[in-house]
Specification:
Blueprint (H helix, E strand, L loop, with lengths): L2 H16 L5 E7 L14 E7 L7 E9 L2 H5 L6 E2 L3 E2 L6 E2 L10 E10 L2 E2 L6 E4 L13 E2 L18 E9 L3 E11 L1 E6 L2 E2 L15 E8 L7 E10 L22 E10 L4 E5 L5 E3 L4 E5 L3 E5 L18 E2 L1 E2 L6 E4 L5 E7 L3 E6 L2 E18 L6 E7 L1 E2 L5 E2 L9 E5 L6 E3 L6 E9 L10 E8 L5 E5 L2 H16 L24 H8 L3 H13 L27 H13 L3 H21 E2 L2 E2 L28 H22 L3 H22 L12 H10 L4 H18 L14 H7 L3 H9 L6 H6 L30 H9 L11 E4 L9 E8 L2 E10 L2 E8 L4 E7 L6 E3 L2 E2 L7 E6 L2 E6 L2 E7 L2
Parallel strand pairs: 15-24, 21-31, 38-42
Antiparallel strand pairs: 1-2, 2-6, 3-4, 3-5, 3-7, 7-8, 7-9, 10-17, 10-23, 11-16, 11-19, 12-15, 12-17, 13-14, 13-16, 17-18, 19-22, 20-21, 25-34, 26-27, 27-32, 27-33, 27-34, 28-31, 28-33, 29-30, 35-39, 36-37, 39-40, 40-41, 41-47, 42-46, 43-44, 43-47, 45-46
Helix pairs in contact: 4-6, 4-15, 5-6, 5-7, 6-7, 7-8, 8-9, 8-10, 10-11, 12-13, 12-15
Bound molecules: beta-D-glucopyranose (BGC).
C-alpha cells in the first residue's frame, strides 16, 4: 500500500469513527428564540441540541463560530467570535463572549460538538441581530393624534376608529439591506408597498407603556424596491387606549390615544444609509373602514369606507391629515423578545342553526380565544353582526350574563359585488358560540372559520392516558392555557376583564411550561411585574397594573418568585433570578416589615380563592369550615418563598442573604407550628386540606408529625369530601403532587378522575371544552363566572407530566431527570413526550396487574434516574435482555419496591413481568 493510500484509508477510518453515532446538532437558539432579529442583549445565550444514534451520548467539547456575514461563516471565519474548542458538557445557555456587539450587528453562527461517541460536522447556520441599543440610534419621532374624531366617542363604552398612516419615499439603486424598527400603540399592522409585513396579529406586546414600550424589528430588504415605495401602518387601541377609558379612573390605568414610532433604515452597498422615520411629514386619516375597535366590545368594519391603494405608492393622500408629533408614552424603548401573537390554529364550526328569521347560532364545537374569519357575498351596505358567547341559554340564545358589560359584537358592512372575506384586526373574543345576524342568504359552515390566536410558542408537550376523561381534562387544559396567552398571561378571554392576575399562574405556569415553550413570555411578564413595583416595594395582584390592585398579600404577588424559579428549573434560565433578585428581596422585606408580627404574616386578601361552595349559586363559600385562615396561608407562603429566596441567594453567590433567609424561614416555621398546629390531633387550624397541606408540602411540619398531618389530609378527602377536591386556587397548587409525594398517587388519581361535583371531570360532563373559573361554573352567579379560566388547574398539568408520565427535572433545564412512573391500579397507560432544552424526552408505560412495560427516550447530553416498579425479586429486562447484562445501565439501588437505575441518553424498553 502506498503511503498516500495508507493516509487516505486512515482518514476514512477516522472519519467513519467520527460519524459512528451520526452525531449532529440541531435546533440552534439564541435567547431561546430561532434567529431573532433586533435583540438587545450583548452577551446573548446560545443553545443547541445534539442528535445521534445509540445511547449515552455526552458532549465533551464545543466550538462556536460567530461571523459578521454568512460568507465568512461558511468559510469558518468567526470574525466576531471563535470560541475555539471549549472542553465542556454545556450545550444550552452558552454566553456569547466575542467582540463587543453594537447596534444593528447581524451575527451568523454555527456550532460543532465533540462527544464521547464522536464529533459532529458544523451545524446548519443560524443568526441573530442586535437592535437599536442606544436611545440616540432613534431618529424617529412619536406621531399620533391626541383626541377623537366626530364619529368617535370617548365614554364608558368607548369607540375609537383605527388610524391609518402613510408615507412615500424613494430608494436608490444598490440596496444591501432594509430594516424596520416599529412600535405601534396599542396594536398595529405594518405594510410596505401594499403588502403586509410579518404574520403577527394584535402586534405589539402589552406593557405598562409608561414604564416600557417594545419595538419589533423586521427585515424588509425584499419588500422594498428601487424607486418609489410606500410604508404604511394602521393603529388600533389595544391596552393603550384602554377598553374603558375615562371610566372608573381610580381602578383603570389609561395611556392616551394611539401613537407610533417607526424607523426604516436602508443600507446601501456603498456603505451609505437612508432613514425613513415617523415624523410630521407622514399623512394620516381616522376615517377608514375600521370604525371602532375595543377589545371588550368588538370591532366594526365598514368596507364601503375602504381606501384602495392607501398603503401603496401612488396613493393620493392630499385629503389626509398631517401627522402630529406627540409626546412619547414615557416608557423605556426596548426590544420585544417574547414571541408575537399569531393565528396559531383554526377551528371549523360544527353547526349553524336558525334561531329566528335572520338570526343564526353557530357552534364552533370548542371554546377558544380568537375570532371568526367570514366569507360573504352580498349587496353594498349589507351589515352583518356577529356576537360571541361561551354558552347558550336553554332557549338557544347566547348566554352573555357572564360577560358582564363587554358587548363582544363585531359588525361588518359589505362593499358589495365580489366575494368578501373579513376578520377583525385589533380585537379578539373568547367564545364557542357565535350569533350571526344580517347575513345575506343562508350562512353555510364553509363560510366561517375560527382562527385561534395566541403567542407563537411551540407546543412542546404531548400527553395521553388510557383514561378518556383525563384525556379530555388535558384537552380542556390545553385549550384554556392557549386561550389565555396574549403577550401576557390573562385570567380570561371573554368578559370585561382579561387581566394579568398574578395568582392565577403561581404554579399553573409550571404545568403550562410542559405544554408550551413559554419561557420568553414568562420572562417578559416578570419584567412587567418588576415595572409595577412601587417604590416602597409593594407588588400588585395585576401586572402590568392596568387595574390598580395593590392589596398586599403573599399569594398573588408571590407569583413573581415562583415563576422565576419555574424558568430556572424548566429552561435553565437564570437571567430572571439575576435581574429580579433585588426587587423580590425588596418585596419580601416590605411584607416582613409592614405585616409580620411575631413571625406571622398578618395580611391576606383572597384566602383559598374559589373553594367549592356549599350551595350551587354561590361564587365564594361563606362556610368557615371550607375556608382556610388567610394569615395561615400568607405565613406558609412567606416560609416557602423565603426558601426560594435562599436558593436564589446561593445561586447568585450571596451567602449572607442566603443565611438571613434561612434564619427568617426557620423562625416563621416555628411560629407557624406554634400558632396553628394542634399537638394532639396534628391538625393545622380548622383542618382543611389546604391548612394541612401547605405546611406539610412546604416542609414546615416537623418530620415527626408529618405522617399524622398527612393522615388528616387523607381522612378529610376520603371521609368529608368523599374523595373529591375541597381546595381552591391555593390548595390546588400543591394538592396532586402533595398526595403523590406522600404515597397516595391513587387518591390524587381519584380526585383527577371524578366526574361528579366538584371536579374537573364534572366540568367535562357538563359540556366544558376549557376549564371553568368556578367548580360550580354551571350554576353559580354570572357576576364572576368565566368558562375559560385556568387557575383551578392548580398543579394538575404539572402532575400529569412530572408524576403520571414521570418527566421531571432534578436540576436546571433537564440536564438530569428523575423518572418515577406511579403505580395506580386503575391507570393502565400513559404516553407522553416533552421537548426539554436538550431535546425530546419520551415516556410511555403500560401497567397491567404487575406486568409493566416502559418505553423511554432520554435526549443526548442529558441523563435520568429511572425508578422501575420491580419489587426486589422481579427481573427487569431491557429490550428482552436481563438488565444486569447491559453495561450501559447502572443499578443504583432497590428502594421502596423500586429498582433505581441510572441511564444516559437513548431509547430503552423496560419490562417487568408479573
Ligand atoms: C379574576 C381572577 C383573579 C381574581 C382575584 C378575578 O376577577 O378573574 O382570575 O385572580 O379576580 O381577585
Amino acid at each position: 500500500m502506498s503511503k498516500r493510500t495508507h493516509i487516505a484509508l486512515l482518514i476514512f477510518i477516522l472519519s467513519s469513527y467520527k460519524c459512528l453515532a451520526g452525531i449532529a446538532t440541531q435546533n440552534l437558539r439564541c435567547e431561546m428564540l430561532h434567529n431573532p432579529l433586533g435583540i438587545e442583549t450583548i452577551h446573548p445565550r446560545l443553545s443547541w441540541q445534539i442528535t445521534g444514534e445509540g445511547r449515552n451520548i455526552n458532549q465533551t467539547a464545543y466550538q462556536v463560530l460567530v461571523a459578521s456575514t454568512p460568507t465568512k461563516l461558511a468559510a469558518n471565519e468567526g470574525d466576531l467570535w471563535d470560541s475555539h474548542r471549549v472542553n465542556s458538557g454545556e450545550s444550552i445557555m452558552i454566553n456569547y463572549a466575542g467582540k463587543v456587539l453594537i447596534s444593528r450587528t447581524a451575527c451568523y453562527w454555527k456550532v460543532k460538538v465533540w462527544t464521547n461517541k464522536g464529533e459532529s460536522q458544523w451545524s446548519q447556520p443560524a443568526m441573530w441581530s442586535e437592535g437599536l441599543l442606544n436611545t440616540t440610534d432613534w431618529k424617529a419621532r412619536w406621531i399620533g393624534h391626541d383626541g377623537g374624531f366626530p364619529w368617535d366617542s370617548v365614554s364608558k363604552f368607548s369607540r375609537l376608529s383605527a388610524r391609518y398612516y402613510h408615507k412615500q419615499f424613494d430608494v436608490k439603486h444598490g440596496v444591501k439591506k432594509a430594516t424596520i424598527y416599529v412600535i405601534g400603540l396599542g396594536h398595529y399592522e405594518l405594510y410596505i408597498n401594499g403588502n403586509i409585513i410579518g404574520d403577527q396579529v394584535l402586534a405589539g406586546p402589552p406593557t405598562d407603556y409608561t414604564q416600557s414600550v417594545k419595538y419589533s424589528t423586521f427585515d424588509v430588504t425584499n419588500a422594498i424596491k428601487q424607486g418609489a415605495n410606500a410604508v404604511a401602518t394602521v393603529l388600533g387601541n389595544g391596552r393603550f387606549f384602554t377598553m374603558r377609558p375615562k371610566y372608573k379612573q381610580k381602578k383603570i390605568k389609561e395611556f392616551g390615544f394611539p401613537k407610533m414610532l417607526l424607523q426604516l433604515e436602508v443600507e446601501y452597498t456603498d456603505g451609505t444609509r437612508q432613514l425613513i422615520v415617523s415624523d410630521n411629514s407622514w399623512k394620516f386619516t381616522a376615517d377608514g373602514p375600521i370604525r371602532t375597535n375595543n377589545e371588550y366590545d368588538g370591532e366594526e368594519y365598514d368596507a364601503t369606507k375602504e381606501m384602495p391603494g392607501w398603503n401603496n405608492t401612488g396613493f393620493d393622500d392630499s385629503k389626509w391629515l398631517k401627522a402630529e408629533l406627540v409626546e412619547a408614552p414615557g416608557g423605556r424603548v426596548e426590544a420585544q423578545v417574547n414571541e408575537p401573537v399569531k393565528v396559531m390554529d383554526t377551528v371549523k364550526p360544527v353547526t349553524i342553526n336558525q334561531l329566528k328569521p335572520g338570526t343564526w347560532i353557530m357552534d364552533m364545537g370548542q371554546n377558544f380565544a380568537g375570532w371568526v374569519k367570514m366569507h360573504v357575498k352580498g349587496k353594498r351596505g349589507d351589515k352583518i353582526t356577529l356576537r360571541y358567547a361561551e354558552t347558550l341559554q336553554p332557549n338557544g340564545e347566547l348566554y352573555v350574563a357572564n360577560l358582564r358589560d363587554a358587548k363582544v359584537t363585531d359588525v361588518y358592512t359589505l362593499k358589495g359585488g365580489e366575494d368578501e372575506s373579513w376578520r377583525p384586526a385589533f380585537v379578539y373574543h373568547g367564545f364557542r358560540y357565535v350569533e350571526i345576524s344580517g347575513y345575506p342568504g343562508r350562512p353555510e359552515l364553509a363560510d366561517f372559520e375560527g382562527e385561534v390566536v395566541y403567542d407563537a410558542m411551540a407546543t412542546t408537550g404531548h400527553f395521553e392516558t388510557s383514561n378518556p376523561l383525563i384525556n379530555q381534562v388535558y384537552h380542556n387544559a390545553y385549550w384554556g392555557i392557549l386561550s389565555n396567552y396574549k403577550g401576557m398571561p390573562v385570567d380570561c378571554p371573554q368578559r370585561n376583564e382579561r387581566m394579568p392576575w398574578l395568582g392565577d399562574r403561581a404554579v399553573g405556569s409550571l404545568g403550562e411550561s410542559f405544554v408550551f415553550a413559554n419561557g420568553n413570555l414568562y420572562a417578559k411578564w416578570l419584567d412587567d411585574i418588576a415595572q409595577s413595583q412601587k417604590p416602597d416595594g409593594a407588588i400588585p395582584d395585576v401586572a402590568p397594573a392596568y387595574w390598580n390592585y395593590y392589596s398586599d398579600n403573599m399569594t398573588w404577588p408571590g407569583t413573581y418568585i415562583l415563576v422565576a424559579d419555574m424558568l430556572y428549573r424548566q429552561f435553565a434560565d437564570k437571567a430572571p433570578i439575576e435581574k429580579h433578585y433585588a426587587s423580590m428581596k425588596k418585596w419580601m422585606d416590605y411584607m416582613h416589615i409592614k405585616y409580620m408580627k411575631d413571625y406571622i404574616v398578618t395580611k391576606d386578601k383572597y384566602g383559598d380563592w374559589c373553594v367549592p361552595p356549599e350551595s350551587p349559586e354561590l361564587i365564594h363559600s361563606k362556610d368557615s369550615s371550607r375556608n382556610t385562615n388567610g394569615q395561615l396561608i400568607a405565613t406558609a407562603y412567606y416560609y416557602h418563598l423565603s426558601g426560594l429566596m435562599q436558593k436564589f441567594a446561593k445561586l447568585l453567590n450571596k451567602p449572607a442573604d442566603a443565611q438571613a433567609f434561612a434564619v427568617l424561614k426557620l423562625r416563621v416555621g416555628n411560629a407557624f407550628n406554634q400558632k396553628y398546629l394542634d399537638k394532639k390531633s396534628f391538625r393545622y387550624a380548622n383542618n382543611t386540606v389546604t391548612a394541612n397541606l401547605l405546611p406539610l408540602y412546604f416542609g414546615i411540619t416537623p418530620a415527626a408529625s408529618s405522617k399524622a398531618v398527612f393522615k388528616n389530609i387523607v381522612d378529610k378527602i376520603e371521609n368529608d369530601a368523599n374523595g373529591h377536591i375541597s381546595t381552591g386556587v391555593i390548595g390546588t397548587q400543591w394538592l396532586m403532587r402533595g398526595l403523590t409525594e406522600y404515597g397516595r398517587p391513587d387518591l390524587a388519581y381519584r380526585i383527577a378522575t371524578n366526574d361528579d361535583y366538584p371536579s374537573w371531570g364534572y366540568m367535562v360532563k357538563h359540556g366544558a371544552t376549557t376549564i371553568w373559573e368556578l367548580w360550580n361554573g354551571d350554576t353559580a352567579n354570572p357576576a364572576m363566572n368565566s368558562h375559560n379560566h385556568i387557575m383551578l388547574l392548580g398543579d394538575l398539568v404539572a402532575w400529569f407530566y412530572q408524576d403520571l408520565a414521570g418527566i421531571k427535572t432534578v436540576n436546571a433545564g433537564f440536564k438530569e431527570m428523575v423518572m418515577i412512573p406511579p403505580v395506580i391500579s386503575q391507570l393502565n397507560t400513559v404516553n407522553a413526550s416533552y421537548e426539554t432544552p436538550y431535546g425530546v424526552v419520551k415516556s410511555s408505560w403500560i401497567s397491567n396487574n404487575g406486568h409493566f412495560t416502559w418505553h423511554i427516550t432520554v435526549p443526548p447530553n442529558s441523563k435520568a434516574l429511572v425508578y422501575i416498579p420491580a419489587g426486589t425479586g422481579k427481573a427487569v429486562t431491557e429490550s428482552g435482555q436481563a438488565i444486569d447484562t447491559i453495561k450501559d445501565i447502572k443499578l443504583l439501588k432497590i428502594e421502596g419496591g423500586r429498582a433505581i437505575f441510572r441511564v444516559g441518553s437513548g431509547s430503552y424498553n423496560f419490562e417487568v413481568k408479573s
